Amino acid sequence: MPRMITTxxxxxxxxxxxxxxxxxxxxxxxxxxxxxxxxxxMIVHDGAEARIPVKAMPGVDRLNIDEAAKAAVRARDLGxxxxxxxxxxxxxxxxxxxxxxxxxxxxxxxxxxxMKAAAPGVGVVCDVALDPFTSHGHxxxxxxxxxxxxxxxxxxxxxxxxxQARAGADIVAPSDMMDGRIGAIRxxxxxxxxxxxxxxxxxxxxxxxxxxxxxxxxxxxxxxTGDKKTYQMDFGNLEEALREVALDLEEGADMVMVKxxxxxxxxxxxxxxxFGAPTLVFQVSGEYAQIKASAAxxxxxxxxxxxxxxxxxxxxxxxxxxxxxAERAAQLLA
Length: 334
Ligand code: PBG
Description:
This protein is α/β, with parallel strands linked by helices. The protein is built from eleven helices and twelve strands. The strands form three sheets. It has an eight-stranded parallel barrel with strand order 1-4-5-8-9-10-11-12, surrounded by nine helices. The mean pLDDT is 96. The structure holds ligand PBG. Ligand PBG binds next to helix 6.
């Protein structure tokens, strides 16, 4: 709501008066992040090693199933409401169709079960998309000319979401940007008795340079050919984001997401203001890497940057933030 700002004038008014003390700054602070706002972005892998460092994301490891379960317990103890898991799949299990995504005994179903057994009160969010499973690194199926097939891909995504729901996922989160996938997934879930499984739609997802380190993390960087501009959004566009969000809400999304985060705060703000639906934001791998790299040089204070960026997301209207910093952030906010 636009409001008239009524204020007096200097020297009756001195804005710095309230900023004098730590206590008075705390007293008038408008937004503050809490552990309740965090979704922990976590990379898991299907190998035996407990942890494998991700080169482009210092401090983030790919976790095996046991480590992921232990992390879920830490999330519970830190008051982090939910974890979003992203898979690194052995190259031998990838193919052009990404059919490993539909394996009910695959990595993600096993991780969901292990996490739910270890910490049942922590929500598990699963990415619905084919890119970690395809030999070409795209989120969808390709026709013979290398074009992404929309409806055929949506058909796969429905099955992938069902596999996740059957394994116990609380939230399925389509990140592929195909048209019509939210409605198709909602129908498939309901028909299978999963009326209570939530959908978090990556509704306004931009074709972004800031996903670079993630593609290293899930092992799709080396295989990806071309870009994702025929399905992810053009970063010049705002009105289009509002249409994407409107469609996904109409198709049954419970929550919507804007991605990446910091460079897109205007989108977060407009979406949360316009629709009033829970709007999440993803502090993506490249944003994580930027902070880590400059902190490693001694150029910025990492902990302060974590809290400041989380506060910015909240200020812009985000309900919650998916972030690889979640564990550290929760410790700082405790
Ligand atoms: C793919 C997917 C991506 C991310 C989450 N799901 C990358 C992409 O679209 O290429 C990015 C996450 C990040 O950068 O942290 N479906």
